[in-house]
Amino acid sequence: MASAAEQLAANINFGALSKATELKKRIWFTLGALVIYRLGTYIPIPGIDPTVLAEFFQQQAGGIVGLFNVFAGGALGRMSIFALNIMPYISAAIIMQLMTAVSPKLEALKKEGESGRKKINQYTRYGTVLLAAFQAYGIAIGMESVANESGPAVSDPGLFFRMTTVITLTGGTIFLMWLGEQITQRGVGNGISLIIFAGIVANLPSALATTLELGRTGALGAGIIIGLLVMAVAVIAFIVFMERAQRRVIVQYPKRQVGSKMFGGESSHLPLKLNSAGVIPPIFASSLLLMPLTVAGFSGGGGPDWLTQLTALLGHGQPLYLTIYMAMIVFFCFFYTSIVFNPADTADNLKKHGGFIPGIRPGANTAEYLNYLQVRLTTVGSAYLALVCLLPELLIAEYAVPFYFGGTSLLIVVSVTMDTVGQIHSHLLAHQYEGLIKKAKLRGRRG
User: Which CATH architecture best describes the domain 21-203?
Assistant: First the structure.
């Protein structure tokens, strides 16, 4: 984030920000929407004992429930109206992307342009409602089974509690989906990403305070804490560098003569990102690996012996956990990249528009060359993702650091920051161009 902020300061004239009225309105709208989201994470669902709930989530801190609680900004741990956060929408969007790759009808719909995109978005919303209702019902059933020495977590279990929980949590997810779309249209940045960003960053102060408290009590040495802070800055700079890395493939367009004039002949470039899959591979890998740990936590230690042994082997920092985690990140990197980037389609589009890569024949040879490049870029990108995501796991296992702000969370925060900074920069440039055009028109009238 520091590197992104330095770049923003270097490229943007902040004096122009005070004059950009439209951009200021967008920024204030974004901040207001995020404040509404944070307030909603503290409105609890009625009928749940907060003391029993807090004890349960302390036991589930290392499972998939703890992971989703991080993304929800603590809303799941408080069992608020936004407990599901925006995760059902993200899951539905990923499912639609995968379905588009395997369903000819959806693929044809995607190629229809704006109208097709609107239909796919509508299908995604329907899927969000179904997933949110299913997950909300699962949460209601799960909460009814939670109890400790003080009593059950749900004071009055039954059909009424389940219905109200499903309606409340589903409505909260739909509201966040709408709020994210409003931020994207009227604010700055991608609304869905900013909601996740706000949830992760909101818990950062408490995590830092806990780490410093461990240093004060002597549980962590001062050298370790300083090393963690220096390493965090270095990892952020590394993520910024790798996320911006791309291979620019030169694309040449032939010259053509129209009448007595020559057109074309210019060259462009096709950017191939080093990490085309984004943060999807770590999220998928973490969710699948933490599933046995979560099931064991819900069973309260009363599950079968094989589940207990598997949970022990898949604990944080265990060799089997780290090996499978790294392998799954690499697999999902290649799998998701093959979904979002199709070399054959790209080669066909270049051929239709008359573009070609110098030294490579159009058509099948171009597709083969792009696939050759993408495989090598994805290999490096998957290694980078595995390194960033395994580093906090090793630290937690070695030093028992309660510093969750790493791996997937750090990738999301840095990526969203870079995207938002880029959009602010674009708005300021557009404002400066508008000012220059107005000045040119005024001079033309005076002349």
Answer: Orthogonal Bundle (1.10)
